[in-house]
């Protein structure tokens, strides 16, 4: 050992030695993560600086974006997509022998069966069954992949909405939109990667946690676009402040924040810095994206802007199309936000009104995506946290049913004109090809080009996945 080298070693302070050793361990960890070949936010898709930079999927994707129309409150599958003629024959009678009673939030239900006075008809070349409440959607029967055998674990709205969004009935996990954003980034760095639209001012049960990032950095959470007034607040530069002044202010804040973050674990601070930068870029990009003035009168009429009943959902659906058209990765619309579909009483008035408000805008969204050549690469999802029971509640309503309910997929690689799974003779339990929430999430991620077991986030020493430790299976019938 030469004197020069020995001197350099002995002159090093203990603090310097520990700092350098710690940095070396961090480099080893980074090298390990980069070598795993997994889509990790740490790896950032191969060295990209922004956590929202576009990342390569695990394999070729059929869908580049998602629009999820979340039916808030639980729609009645046996009045919309899953015809059960036996209901009218057994109306007023107990459940048939051999069918297990349902445990509802009110206890074990022995209520009599409620009839279903719907008129049903087969539609399209596929002969898909839809009720009279969905006349516009019926024109797109051959685009719909209807899953009649969904099931979940929650009994009440707060836990069930949380599970349908995050995979767990307990709070604290990232939403599916956050997982997609984490795994794939955004194709537009000037708009939120994950946008949330509510058709009513009321939030769904659980509020923002349904589009939150859980244990991930807040960068990946959804951005709510408001239903009244300007969809995104505070986009305009304050009066008297020039763009140059605004830019200098943000640069100074960013520098101060980075100095503070140096040598600290500052994921939340980094997320805050990123959000400031996104907000600045959105000041120029977002107003154009949410401005519907440039849409033709024909397009607005197609969605239903000219009718009071459909105007709210028309706005949400058209905004969702404009957002994914501009590179937003995940757009979620809450239809009937605030559990409006929760028809414990007077189901006829409740569902007929909500179907009237949403059927035309949703059908228009499918038609508009298709004519623009976007449906093949945009996965549209329809469904809520659970369905409704065949038994009556309060004489003319239906209770929560997480045991067997319906959701549908369209576009993005999903095969239309087919039904998957089956419920029992009265529509209470899924009994064939059962599809759990985790299976649904695994399938959505698969269509987006991601392996639900390979998309991981290290949290508390565990490689967490979107389908939690309970796993999930890909529903191949939906796309093969």
Describe this structure in words.
With 480 residues, the chain is an alpha/beta fold. The protein has one domain: Alkaline Phosphatase, subunit A. It is built from twelve helices and 19 strands. The protein has helices at residues 3-10, 14-35, 44-47, 86-89, 157-166, 176-184, 243-261, 267-290, 297-303, 311-325, 347-371, 437-447, and strands at 65-71, 103-104, 107-108, 120-123, 128-131, 144-151, 194-198, 223-225, 330-335, 378-383, 387-393, 397-401, 405-410, 418-420, 422-423, 430-432, 435-436, 457-459, 462-464. Strands 1, 6, 7, 8, 9, 10, 13, 14 and 17 form a nine-stranded mixed beta sheet that branches. A hairpin with a 6-residue loop joins strand 15 and strand 16. The longest helix has 25 residues, at 347-371. The chain is globular and about 70 Å long. The N and C termini lie far apart (67 Å). Residues 1-12 and 21-48 have low confidence and may be disordered.
Per-chain topology:
Elements: H1 3-10, H2 14-35, H3 44-47, E1 65-71, H4 86-89, E2 103-104, E3 107-108, E4 120-123, E5 128-131, E6 144-151, H5 157-166, H6 176-184, E7 194-198, E8 223-225, H7 243-261, H8 267-290, H9 297-303, H10 311-325, E9 330-335, H11 347-371, E10 378-383, E11 387-393, E12 397-401, E13 405-410, E14 418-420, E15 422-423, E16 430-432, E17 435-436, H12 437-447, E18 457-459, E19 462-464
Parallel strand pairs: 1-9, 1-10, 6-14, 6-17, 7-8, 7-9
Antiparallel strand pairs: 2-3, 4-5, 6-13, 10-13, 11-12, 15-16, 18-19
């Amino acid at each position: 050992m030469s004197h020069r080298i020995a001197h350099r070693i002995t002159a090093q302070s203990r603090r310097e030695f520990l700092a350098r050793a710690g940095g070396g361990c961090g480099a080893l960890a980074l090298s390990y993560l980069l070598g795993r070949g997994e889509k990790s936010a740490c790896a950032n898709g191969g060295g990209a600086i922004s956590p929202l930079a576009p990342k390569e999927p695990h394999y070729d994707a059929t869908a580049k974006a998602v629009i999820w129309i979340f039916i808030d409150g639980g729609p009645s599958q046996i009045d919309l997509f899953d015809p059960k003629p036996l209901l009218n024959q057994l109306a007023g009678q107990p459940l048939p022998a051999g069918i297990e009673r349902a445990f509802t939030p009110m206890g074990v239900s022995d209520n009599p069966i409620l009839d279903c006075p719907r008129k049903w008809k087969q539609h399209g070349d596929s002969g898909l069954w839809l009720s009279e409440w969905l006349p516009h959607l019926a024109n797109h029967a051959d685009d719909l992949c209807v899953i009649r055998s969904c099931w979940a674990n929650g009994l009440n709205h707060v836990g069930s909405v949380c599970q349908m969004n995050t995979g767990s009935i307990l709070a604290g996990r990232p939403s599916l939109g956050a997982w997609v954003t984490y795994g794939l980034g955004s194709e537009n760095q000037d708009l939120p990667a994950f946008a949330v639209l509510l058709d009513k001012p009321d939030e769904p049960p659980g509020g923002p946690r349904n589009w939150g990032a859980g244990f991930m950095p807040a960068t990946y959470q959804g951005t709510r676009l408001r239903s009244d007034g300007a969809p995104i607040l505070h986009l305009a530069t304050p009066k008297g402040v020039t763009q140059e002044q605004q830019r200098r202010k943000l640069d100074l804040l960013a520098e101060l924040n980075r100095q503070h973050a140096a040598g600290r674990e500052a994921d939340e601070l980094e997320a805050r810095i990123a959000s400031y930068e996104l907000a600045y870029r959105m000041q120029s990009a977002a107003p154009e994206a949410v401005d519907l003035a440039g849409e033709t009168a024909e397009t607005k009429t197609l969605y239903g802007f000219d009718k009071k009943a459909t105007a709210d959902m028309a706005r949400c659906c058209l905004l969702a199309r404009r957002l994914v058209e501009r590179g937003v990765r995940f757009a979620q619309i809450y239809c009937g936000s605030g559990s409006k579909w929760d028809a414990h009483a007077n189901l006829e008035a409740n569902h007929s009104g909500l179907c009237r408000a949403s059927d035309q805008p949703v059908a228009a969204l499918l038609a508009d995506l298709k004519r623009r050549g976007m449906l093949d690469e945009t996965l549209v999802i329809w469904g809520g946290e659970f369905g409704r029971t065949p038994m009556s509640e309060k004489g003319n309503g239906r209770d929560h049913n997480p045991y067997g309910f319906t959701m549908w997929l369209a576009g993005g690689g999903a095969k239309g004109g087919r039904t998957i799974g089956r419920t029992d003779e009265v529509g209470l339990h899924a009994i064939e090809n059962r599809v759990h929430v985790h299976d649904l999430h695994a399938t959505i991620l698969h269509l987006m080009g991601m392996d639900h077991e390979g998309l991981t986030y290290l949290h508390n020493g565990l490689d967490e996945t979107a389908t939690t430790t309970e796993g999930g299976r890909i529903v191949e019938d939906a796309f093969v």
